[in-house]
């Protein structure tokens, strides 16, 4: 078989290369494939590329004037690199553990980029702003001005936690998760009272005074009163007779009656009498001599 060639220059030419037929005046062959125009195409390592400044990266064409092949990745630019399978610009970006950060002064904190400006630090995976910082349950706080108590940030350096709430130990007290106001506060039967120095709690009863006491369920002042066998007496008394207070220095108890401390004193019914000049007749006191 004879191949005819027309004299017209624009007429397509059919070439035979190794039994592969390619059509076109500037046709060519590349790794067994036809090239349509060898003046604008190149064959690089068996890959057909369009253009002149070509190179091949992982069987893909790229312009090596404005692109770079790194680890089988085509990246735009010449001062580039790959990070986590992605391209980045080394002039403006940094790579940390496969993460691209868009700041040359960047660092990685908790898997995220942050700018290492003065006063910014990474603490336990959290970015904190300021100096002398720490973290509390993932939140930043100032160790100079705050405390971390039970994963709660409290203001002040003498703070406490009461029922999950921060309080100032200088002006408040916490009793069994009950918060009371006042530096001298106390608790009585689940209720706050103001001053432990001028008040006291006895079995759930709040008593006022600087030296209070409890006598048979009642408050009393220890300075002026005394409690004897559950009976509230004056401080001058020291004994009780049938529920009545008396002073044993000057008095005595006879048959449940408080009498004057005289040797000749006896009791008639419920009355005291002096047997030196009185007598008891039928429960009635009468003069001894009439």
In short:
With 290 residues, the protein is an all-beta fold. Helix content is 0%, strand content 55%. The strands form 21 sheets. The protein has a two-stranded antiparallel ribbon.
State the end-to-end distance: 184 Å
Main sheet: which strands, in order across?
Answer: 1-2
Q: Overall pLDDT, averaged?
A: 89
Morphology call: rod-shaped
Unreliable parts: 1-17
Characterize the largest beta sheet: strand count, sense, and whether it forms a barrel: 2 strands, antiparallel
How many helical elements? 0
Strand content: over 45%
The assigned structural class equals mainly beta
* DSSP E strands, number: 42
Instruction: Give helix % range.
Output: under 10%
The whole-angstrom Rg is 54 Å
Structure description:
With 290 residues, the protein is mainly β. It has a domain at 1-52. It contains no helices and 42 strands. The chain has a two-stranded antiparallel sheet with strand order 1-2. The protein has a two-stranded antiparallel ribbon with strand order 3-4. Strand 9 (67-70) and strand 10 (73-76) form a beta hairpin. The radius of gyration is 54 Å and the shape is rod-shaped. The N and C termini lie far apart (184 Å). Mean pLDDT is 89; it is low at 1-17.
């Amino acid at each position: 078989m004879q191949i005819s060639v027309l004299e017209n220059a624009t007429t397509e030419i059919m070439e035979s290369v190794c039994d592969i037929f390619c059509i076109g005046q500037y046709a060519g062959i590349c790794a067994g494939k036809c090239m349509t125009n060898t003046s604008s195409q190149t064959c690089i390592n068996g890959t057909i590329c369009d253009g002149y400044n070509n190179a091949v990266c992982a069987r893909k064409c790229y312009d090596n004037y404005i692109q770079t092949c790194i680890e089988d990745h085509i990246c735009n630019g010449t001062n580039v690199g790959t990070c986590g399978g992605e391209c980045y610009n080394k002039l403006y970006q940094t790579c940390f553990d496969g993460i691209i950060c868009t700041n040359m002064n960047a660092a990685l904190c908790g898997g995220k980029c942050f700018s290492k400006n003065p006063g910014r630090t990474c603490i336990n995976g959290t970015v904190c702003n300021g100096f002398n910082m720490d973290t509390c349950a993932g939140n930043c706080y100032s160790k100079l001005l705050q405390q971390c108590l039970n994963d709660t940030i409290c203001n002040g350096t003498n703070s406490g936690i009461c029922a999950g709430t921060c309080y100032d130990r200088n002006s408040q007290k916490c009793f069994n998760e009950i918060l009371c106001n006042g530096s001298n506060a106390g608790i009585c039967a689940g209720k706050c009272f103001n001053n432990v120095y001028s008040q006291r709690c006895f079995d759930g009863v709040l008593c006022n005074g600087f030296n209070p006491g409890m006598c048979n369920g009642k408050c009393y002042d220890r300075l002026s009163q005394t409690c004897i066998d559950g009976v509230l007496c004056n401080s001058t008394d020291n004994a009780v007779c049938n529920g009545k207070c008396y002073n044993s220095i000057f008095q005595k108890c006879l048959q449940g009656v408080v009498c004057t401390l005289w040797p000749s004193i006896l009791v008639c019914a419920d009355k005291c009498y002096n047997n030196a000049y009185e007598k008891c007749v039928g429960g009635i006191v009468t003069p001894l001599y009439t």
